[in-house]
C-alpha cells in the first residue's frame, strides 16, 4: 500500500512511501517548508527495534527472484508474439517494461543473497546498529523522540 506523508505541522506533502518500507537511520527529520521536526515513518532505530532477522532470509529474496523471472518470462513470451504478428511501437512498452522490471528485480535479489551469504549485510547492519546506539545515547535526541510519541525502551529511556 502506497501512502502519502504530510508534515504534521504545516501539512505539506513530503513524500509517498510503501507501508512495508524499512530504512535504518535517524528517524527525526526536519520539514523543508516550515522547519518543524517530525518522525519519518519509513525509518527504524535499530537500537530500539533490534536487528530484524528477516533481512537475512535468503528465501525471501529467492521468492523475489522467482517473481522477477515470471515477469521476464511473460515479457519475452509477449515479445515473441509481437515479433511474429507485428505490433504498434506503443504496445511494445508492456513487454519491454516487464523484461526491465524482471532484470532489476533479479539483479537486486542476487545482490541481497550475495551480501547475506558473504556476511557483508550482517556487518553493515551491525554498523547501523552501533550508529543507532550512539544516537540513543544523546539525551536531547531521545527526549525529542519521546515528545513525538516514539516509544523508548528502558535501556535508553531518560
Ligand atoms: Zn512543515
Description:
The protein contains five helices and six strands, in the order E-E-E-E-E-E-H-H-H-H-H. It starts with a strand and ends in an 11-residue tail after the last helix. It folds into two domains: about 1-50 and about 140-155, no CATH class; about 55-115. It has about 160 residues and is α+β, with helices and mostly antiparallel strands. It has helices at about 45-50, 60-85, 95-115, 120-135, 140-145, and strands at about 1-5, 15-20, 25, 30, 35-40, 45. Strands 1-2 form a two-stranded antiparallel sheet. It binds zinc ion (ZN). Zinc ion binds near residues 7, 10, 31, 33 and 34. Zinc ion binds near residues 10, 31, 33 and 36.
What's the overall average pLDDT, rounded?
94
Q: Gyration radius, to the nearest Å?
A: 21 Å
In spatial order, strands of the major sheet run: 1-2
Order of helices and strands: EEEEEEHHHHH
Integer tally of domains: 2
Secondary structural class: alpha+beta
* Share of β-strand residues: 5-15%
Total beta strand runs: 6
Report low-confidence residues grouped into runs of 5 or more: none
Number of helices: 5
- How many strands, what sense, and barrel or not for the largest sheet? 2 strands, antiparallel
Specify the helix fraction band. 40-55%
Ligands (ions, cofactors included): zinc ion
In short:
With 158 residues, the protein is an alpha+beta fold.
